[in-house]
Write a structure and sequence with these properties.
Keywords: Membrane, Transmembrane, Transmembrane helix. The protein is mostly helical and 160 residues long. 69% of the residues lie in helices and 0% in strands. It contains five helices and no strands.
Length: 160
């Protein structure tokens, strides 16, 4: 069964986004290589950023190549999705709210709100599961980075 041709705007934006991911990967790798070597242990402070930079570059390159191939056969007569500009503006507002509220409410609360808002705006089915997933994801990231790795994240008035 043949797949439907991708919409032209989607293929073009995915190609551009893949290219931006590759540029970001190069910047991450350059910054990681500039980190000083502490000489303590096998993995220095650049190990994780280097791995993430390489992974970001590979995924970005794959996305750009796949999307540019899809661009050749993309359909041009499909209209924009309903309320696309409104959803984009709401996502930007959610990111701004996250940045403004992070020092006040802490990482877990603001991240959970951002995850839930993004999921709803991107079309996830509504229900309590989205809220549970948002809180769980925020809590796991907080525990891993703040408690296990030791990178301090804003705790907020509740200590998390």
């Amino acid at each position: 069964m043949a797949a439907e041709p991708q919409e032209r705007r989607t293929a073009l934006s995915s190609t551009v986004f893949g290219g931006l991911m590759v540029v970001a990967a190069i910047l991450v790798i350059i910054d990681a290589l500039a980190l000083p070597d502490t000489g303590k242990g096998a993995a220095g402070p650049a190990a994780v950023p280097l791995a993430l930079g390489v992974l970001l570059g590979v995924v970005g390159l794959a996305l750009a190549l796949r999307s540019s191939a899809a661009l050749r056969t993309a359909a041009t007569d499909q209209p924009l999705r309903q309320h696309a500009a409104l959803r984009l503006a709401a996502l930007v507002a959610a990111l701004v709210a996250f940045a403004l509220l992070l020092p006040v409410l802490g990482y877990v609360v603001t991240s959970a709100g951002l995850f839930v808002a993004a999921a709803l705006l991107l079309g996830a089915p509504r229900g309590w599961q989205i809220v549970a997933h948002g809180w769980s994801l925020a809590a796991v990231v907080f525990v891993v980075f703040d408690r296990i790795i030791g990178l301090t994240l804003p705790a907020g008035p509740w200590g998390f």
